[in-house]
Design brief:
Oligomer: single chain
Structural class: alpha+beta
Number of domains: 3
Strand order of the largest sheet: 3-2-1-4-6-5
CATH architecture of the largest domain: 3-Layer(aba) Sandwich
Radius of gyration: 31 Å
CATH superfamily of the largest domain: HUPs
CATH class of the largest domain: Alpha Beta
Largest sheet: 6 strands, mixed
Number of helices: 17
Distance between the termini: 71 Å
CATH topology of the largest domain: Rossmann fold
Shape: elongated
Length: about 525
């Protein structure tokens, strides 16, 4: 049979499955997945595969969903294949996670597949996506604002399975039309189930499937499938090139580049790195001309460099967020504008994207994971702890005696009394030391606040700390973590800028207070 031969060729040509593999065939009960079960059953001895049938009951359609589960169970029993099922209330999950049903269902399926791999039930999971599904995906991503990377569509192999760090997801039908599978089932007199939610035109994919694709000729569907295949091939080249560039560019705020880049790069489709910490990119290096482009005319070289910068920014977003879902080309362009050396982006400006916030701080871009508190947390007044490197909440600490004072944002302030009986310190030291008689304990330590101003010893006049930060090019996140030492409301000492003039040493000083920031 032609369809059987075509499927076998695809599996062997793409090395999707190997002899001896235990393959879990995901079956919803719909025509495509039922055809996958039947076709792989016919090929299992020739390919040396061991099959089991798996089904996830999303519990979205009540009795109809339960009937789908019973149908798939009967199909597996008739073919004498092992059957495994998982039931999950996807609607409740979506509500709890504040996501939509489609995303919650996707995550539930991936977790189910990962558990099969981790528990040793399967080496691979086979999915029934067809070239029609590929065409829908490419069109949907194009309409939602995806860039060239999004045109790669559905990947025939995802390895390892997300969250499992082993196994693979395979899609052997990506070169096969949906109509051919239905013809095969009709020939075998094999029934299937119809999911009534596929008729809901409120979903973009359903509108594409029901209204747009039938208006296209078969060649157009094949062209979209080939476009995705070509885009995936080009993505392989881009991925290797960008990963090498990213490794030299990244400057992690936590853990260092080596620790961060020891993890794998994100797969083309659905791969997850796990949410990372803060990340910093040097704008000048991000936009620096690539030597490979030096032979191009100036305008073309600039265009090519922007293409490289877009890819590097997407790679940074994937590193910080864990994946690139819901990130569109429009989001990436907003980051390019933030990094614009011509002045369109200014220090202190911030762009908030799905799952991440990016701020410009002078000549750097600072990436931070963003997780807003859910509704229940807000009702209880509970908010998430800041990410590593993020600004702490306001604090006010009382210091009653010399010693160490841990700071909420990390680090410690050390207060130490020093006798001056043996002689006066040099000029540079006097700028660091407080006259203990002028600033006796108790003292107060709090975080910097807008409007704070003082006159550092040796300065000509009072200045706002914000002005001093700007003059010293202190990044915004460091400003927010800067502690300020006060005596009865007056600033005594600030890291980097030193003691306030009214509290500095004089000829009459007998004891100095040394304040140091550690960690």
């Amino acid at each position: 049979m032609e369809l059987l031969r075509k499927l076998e060729q695809a599996i062997r040509r793409e090395h999707l499955l190997q002899p001896g593999m235990r393959v879990a065939v995901a079956c919803s009960g719909g025509a495509d997945s039922v055809a996958l079960v039947r076709l792989l059953y016919e090929l299992k001895d020739r390919l040396g595969l061991r099959l089991l049938v798996v089904h996830l009951n999303h519990q979205l359609r009540g009795a109809e969903a339960d009937a789908d589960e019973a149908f798939v169970r009967q199909l597996a029993e008739r073919l004498e294949l092992e059957f495994l099922v998982r039931r999950q209330n996807v609607a409740a999950r979506a509500q709890k996670e504040k996501s939509n049903l489609e995303e919650a269902g996707r995550q539930a399926r991936l977790e189910f597949f990962a558990s099969l791999i981790q528990n040793g039930k399967a080496d691979a999971v086979a999915l029934a996506h067809t070239v029609d599904d590929q065409a829908e995906t490419v069109l949907a991503r194009l309409l939602r604002g995806a860039g060239t990377r999004g045109l790669a569509g559905i990947y025939p192999v995802v390895e390892p399975v997300p969250s499992a760090q082993a196994g693979r997801l395979v899609r052997p039908f990506l070169g096969i039309r949906r109509a051919d599978l239905r013809a095969y089932l009709a020939e075998r007199e094999q029934p299937w189930r119809e999911d009534t939610s596929n008729l809901d035109r409120r979903r973009l994919r359903n509108r594409l499937r029901l209204d747009l694709l039938p208006q296209l000729n078969p060649a157009a569907i094949a062209h979209l499938g080939r476009l995705a295949a070509h885009a995936r091939e080009e993505e392989s080249l881009w991925s290797a090139y960008i990963e090498e560039k990213f490794a030299t560019l990244v400057d992690s705020a936590v853990g260092g580049p080596a620790a961060r880049l020891a993890r794998r790069s994100p797969s083309g489709e659905g791969g997850s790195l796990g949410v990372g910490g803060p990340l910093e990119l040097d704008i000048s290096r991000l936009l620096a001309p690539d030597p490979l482009l030096s032979k191009l005319p100036a305008r073309r070289a600039a265009e090519a460099q922007r293409a490289v910068a877009r890819r590097l920014l997407r790679r940074a977003l994937a590193e910080v967020r864990g994946d690139l879902r819901r990130i569109t080309q429009t989001h990436v362009e907003s980051l390019l504008r933030l990094a614009d050396p011509a002045g369109a982006g200014q220090s202190g400006q911030r762009v908030v994207l799905p799952g991440v916030e990016v701020e410009r701080s002078f000549d750097r871009l600072l990436f931070h994971p963003a997780r807003p508190p859910d509704y229940a947390e807000r009702q209880r007044g509970v908010y998430p702890q800041p990410a590593p490197g993020a600004a702490p909440a306001d604090y006010r600490l009382h210091v009653e005696a010399p010693g160490g004072v841990p700071l909420p944002g990390g680090g410690t302030l050390i207060f130490k009394l020093i006798s001056l009986a043996e002689g006066k310190p040099g000029y540079n030291e006097t700028r660091k030391l407080v006259d203990a008689a002028r600033a006796p304990f108790p003292l107060v330590v709090r975080n910097w606040q807008p409007g704070d101003a003082y006159q550092p010893r040796g300065a000509a006049r009072v200045k706002k700390l914000k002005t001093l930060f700007r003059e010293q090019r202190v990044p915004r996140q460091q400003r927010a973590r800067t502690p300020v030492v006060l005596r009865e409301g007056e600033i005594v000492w600030v890291p980097r800028f030193g003691v306030a003039a009214p509290f500095g040493l004089s000829d009459a000083s007998g004891t100095a207070l040394l304040i140091e920031e550690k960690g």
